[in-house]
What does this fold into?
Amino acid sequence: MNLKLRVWRQTDPSSRGRMVTYLVEDISPDASFLEMLDVLNERLILAGDEPIAFDHDCREGICGMCGMMINGVAHGPSRATTTCQLHMRHFKDGETIDVEPWRAAAFPVVKDLVVDRGAFDSIIQAGGYISAPTGAAPDAHATPVPKVDADAAFEAATCIGCGACVAACPNGSAMLFTAAKVGHLGLLPQGQPERDTRVVGMLEAHDEAGFGGCTNAGECTTVCPKGIPLTLIGRLNSDYRKAVTKRG
Amino acid sequence: MAGTGLLLVLFLFAHMAGNLKIFVGADAFDHYAHWLRDIGTPLLPHTWYLWIQRGGLTVAVVGHIAAAVILARRARLARPVRYAHRPKVQGSYAARTMRWGGVIILLFVIFHILDLTTGTVNPVGDAQHPYANVVADFAPSRWYVTLFYTLAIVSVGFHLRHGIFSALRTLGQQTPRGERRARAIALVLSLVLVVGYLSVPFAVTIGAIK
Ligand code: HEM
Ligand code: SF4
Ligand code: FES
It folds into this structure.
């Protein structure tokens, strides 16, 4: 396949970036999007140019490191797919593809397509954990969990923290990520002692990091590689209301 | 956003029910308008209830707009650099047009109060005879007024289609089945409102109400 790529190039956080056009020839339709960028980068290096910086790690859709706006859609055109798992056969030969980094004040660009998602860490640090005594592993049946709760908690726990929800949100909100983390722990017995302080703390950290407010637009769920459901945001809202009413 | 919005939806239903009285006849409609000024009497003096309701609605509208402005401002700050390529693919049309839709509705409400409450821009403008005001308003020769009303009411429909769903979510709706129900409720209520409101101007324009 031959493609025309327009990629955001920015040398460092403080410099001004711009879209740069590259012609990429002879790409296998079976290559992943990141492999296509690898091929382009090899050619750039051979030509003495600076390769395009992008984040990646597992390349199997489980770590949450990769992610870029592809033609304006986070992680590109296939649903429930990370950028590393997106294949070039989803594009047409000769197509022009625009590639941009996640755009959010809370996710400053480090270089090219790499953004700093440290804001997610500050949300997690504000309550995305349980305080459990250490020691020998407890018996598996010591804390019974109803099957429906276990399934729902597991679904929420599949969030890999990629940040696509923020990138797609018209408000630049990280509510889906926050709701996934609040929901995943709040659904389990182990998460109950800190349930109230968790939701309040994580929401405060979310707002402080500079993310926007949620208007239930639903763009996040459509691009989420793990299909985290929008209903979790309703659960977060109800947890938040209960926590604030109790606190008085 | 959810609290003030739902209060305004309650008003919209009460207002629509009142408007539909026009199909009963001129006397019934005018009598209804006079009754509005007498609600609460003799406990409250004449028109007091109406003024209390107007006060309540104003507080709700101002609160609703204030919340919207805060959200819009936060959204702008949260994405200082825009995307070069941004298709409008996902999300519903209704969700994407909440802000502009709200502005259109506000302009409409201002025009509408000058039209049918104060009578300033109404060809008849007789506060004692609202029936005559409405009939004069939507006469075929004033098609542009009817068109503006139609545009505004369709905007209200879109606004509520997302607004009602979003309010239920904010209030804690959180099951997949509930989500399907909330979307269905929002759609049905919006359609009922659009049809109910539009029936009056169109009935006047085609001459079913004279
Ligand atoms: C075709 C549809 C409509 C018709 C025929 C209509 C008719 C009227 C009439 C006759 C009045 C004056 C009642 C009186 O003072 O006795 C009125 C008041 C009012 N209408 Fe409408 N209306 C329509 C749609 C709407 C919509 C969609 C909204 C809101 C978005 C709205 C908001 C109001 C408000 C706020 C007032 C009260 C003003 C006040 O008394 O303080 N109306 N309408
Ligand atoms: S909710 Fe989905 S899109 Fe958002 S960070 Fe988690 S996995 Fe990524
Ligand atoms: S590189 Fe790990 S999810 Fe894409």
Q: What stands out?
A: The CA atoms of residues 161 and 188 of chain B lie 8 Å apart. The mean pLDDT of chain B is 95.
